[in-house]
TonB-dependent receptor (Novosphingobium organovorum), 735 residues
Amino acid sequence: MSRRKSPLLPSALALGAALVSAPAWGQAAAEPSAPQPGEIVVTATKRSENIQSVPISISAIGGDALAKGRMDSVDSLVTKVANLQLSSIVGDNTPIFALRGVSMSDYSLNQASPVATYYDEVYKGNFAFLGVAMYDLERVEVLRGPQGTLYGKNTTGGAVNIISRTAKLGETSGYANLGFGNYDRVDLNGAINLPLGDKAALRVAGTYSKANGWFHNVVEGVPDPGGVREYGVRATLRYEPSSSVRFVAQGSTSYQDPTNYGIYAQPTADNRAGLGKWEIASDVTERRRARTYSLALHTDIDLSDTLTLTSITAWDKGYLHFREDSDGQASQLIEIDYDDKASQFAEDLRLTSDTGGPFDFIAGLYFNREKVFNSSTMHLATDTDVNADGTIDYTDCVDSELSLACQFRNRFDQIKKSLAAYTDLSYKLGGHVTLHGGLRYTHDTGRQYDFTSDALGVDEVEVLNLIPSSSLRFSTDNLSGKLGADYRFDGGTLLYASVSLSYRAPSFNAQAFFDASELSIAKAEKVTSYEVGAKTQLLGRAVTLNTAAFYYDYRNQQFVNVDPSTAVQTLLNVPKSRIYGAEADLTAIAASWLNIHGGIGLLATKILSGTVSGTNVAGNQLANAPHFTGNLGIDITAFDGPSGTLSFHPEVAYQAGQYFEMVNVARLRQGGYALLSGHIDYESADGLWNLSAWIKNATKKQYFTSRIDLMDGFGLDYNHVGTPRTYGITAGLKF
């Protein structure tokens, strides 16, 4: 591979120069005080703070902006957050996030992403727990970089925090929204807040959506893939028996059973002949099904004026089942059933100080137990009568020597436990400099047991036991942490620098089908992160500019390795990679009627050593790591008078080309593309009702969200396609 200089280096150096010059700009800004209208208070550091005071690279989106922008799925966050990508290889609303190039190169349902997802501070690791999340939200926070000294679960890539609106004491209020869109879409969501005396309140929120599939199926009588059919309900009870004790209990459930996603197959043969780019020929009629249940209790007890004890106790249960038409055609060349059932219990107990003096701390204990049952069934050419006897049964699988008219089914149970102790400390040196540090000790154990794999006929008759009942286990200890400092100028500008060590626990292979040698444990991932950043507000706070630059030493990234000669799959590690890049987030109040907001992300990744699928990948780019991402939105208030307010909100998001796999197959590279979206809003002068018209992917751009090379085994490239143009109107009422 060539050792030519990365084109991102000048850009990164330029951004670094901007960080050095930032103090001169910040000194002209107003002295920071209470949050101003439009500013967001976050809890990224487990304290309520203005986002400009947090020495972390973080993007936050408020609940109103999420609702008006029709961001009703976690997938849509990628158009708002620089250096955030996703792979939708297991379907919509179950994204595999990549942040700053740190991603999960495995599509197994037993795995947990290196970019952790939290709902109201509860870690949701397994796909079966995700459900319908984006409704009645206070905000979403995306934290870039390793997390561990503040968060329950250690992660190497970052964290996505989804924070719902809590119940409000002494207030009766609520809202309801009704929307219609193309593909016969119907949306209904709302919430009601009820006081229960002076010390308690109840909030109940819900959402319902239904839409036909957007991927037109030319097979008569078979539904169009890509549909929506889901609901979610959440109840929150807040109780404050005294000024020093606070309880928030929450219960939620969700259910989804849409038509599943469709696969855009690009074969060497001509089975896409006669099909348009938004058409598919699929014979799978089975719906995708996902159910979640969740209970959580958040308790805060003020032990004194300066110490608060917090307990977050949570239980989750969920299942996910879908049948994938992996060949994307009406034949039964390859189809796969996925089943995932999971439950977890978690406890996060921490002590937080707020002394008002130079020294403050957070000290916590964390426990998580997750139990998972997984089963995958690979159906290979099950419509083939191998022996031409007029019946397709187990004898056809036998006569084909396990290559046609066969089902290959594996199943296993898995238990993972994580026990950790963590600290986060800060000490102010004088009036400008604050030192930060933290340590985390983690003890992780895992057991995969009752793993079996069988070859079956179409009639479910067992032909051969390929992997007898087997088990694997691991136990590991890790000490990680963070050391940093920040400098706060009199004008409000904040400069910060940090070094972090992070770790992701080992993982079990779920893709073993044919031989016991496929059973494997990938070693723990480790990332050493170096980061500098600046948070500035200029021109009397009219302009907010937050920037960061980083370098990662990335060790042992976990990935699925496929032996090209035998199709044996094992879960292994890429020994060493490096990542560097930068981000900038800008918000500007250009006039009383004009706001501008946007962000850019620069990224350069390189594998330094590793072998994938028999190929030396040293010098290649990491998967899901485009060198540039950017987003820009404009808020225009066209009219604001006695009858109400009319506003326009055009948006564009751009992503440069990227690979979805580490071999960097040229034909599988997704080129750069832009997505145009926007909404027009009208709100009555009294704020009681509103009307919105919205559109996404206005130019109907076709782009891929994941791609896999199946040419050698099945003669096709397997692709997931992003959603085409969608649009609609929504009417809302508040009370």
Remarks:
- The mean pLDDT is 90.
- The CA atoms of residues 58 and 143 lie 5 Å apart.
- The first strand starts at residue 41 and ends at 42.
